[in-house]
Amino acid sequence: MTPEPTLQNSDHLLVANLQTISLEKLVRSKLEVLFQQQDEAQVQLDDLHKLILEQVEKPLIELALESHRGNQVRAARMLGINRNTLKKKIDGYKIRIRQRAQA
């Protein structure tokens, strides 16, 4: 019999299922918890849309830059945005560009 997930082992359960759970479902699950906590605490969340976009967009840009060794033109192409737009986002999020040495 498998034990019920707890706070301690639920993180491991989630990691084990990352390949079978879509990003959309992961985000929805996290947002459901956030909304539940908001209701329980009886607080009002403001600017939630902006906050969520920032928390997804920043690591997306960082990873795109890493995968292209800091090349902004290639990273922008991968993301489907203009390089000038990417540069504004890099500056806005204060992303440090690390250029990896070629292997």
Layout of strands and helices, then pairs:
Blueprint: H1 7-16, H2 23-41, H3 48-67, H4 72-79, H5 83-93
Helix pairs in contact: 3-4, 4-5
What labels would you give this structure?
103 residues, mainly alpha, Arc Repressor Mutant, subunit A, 2 domains, 5 helices, disordered N terminus
Describe the protein's architecture and organization:
The chain contains five helices and no strands. The chain is an all-alpha fold and 103 residues long. It has two domains: 1-44; 46-103, Arc Repressor Mutant, subunit A, CATH 1.10.10.60. Mean pLDDT is 85; it is low at 1-9.
Biggest sheet features: none
Number of helices: 5
What is the end-to-end distance? Answer: 48 Å
Instruction: List the secondary-structure elements in sequence, H or E.
Output: HHHHH
Strand tally: 0
* Annotated CATH homologous superfamily of the largest domain: Homeodomain-like
What name is given to the CATH topology of the largest domain? Arc Repressor Mutant, subunit A
**CATH architecture title of the largest domain:** Orthogonal Bundle
Oligomeric description of these chains:
single chain
What is the CATH first-level class name of the largest domain?
A: Mainly Alpha
Task: Calculate the mean pLDDT score and round it.
Answer: 85
| Shape, per Cα inertia axes | elongated
| Strand portion | under 5%
* Rg measurement, Å: 18 Å
Instruction: Name the helicity range.
Output: 55-70%
Structural class: mainly alpha
Compute the number of structural domains: 2
Which residues sit in consecutive blocks of at least 5 with pLDDT less than 50?
A: 1-9
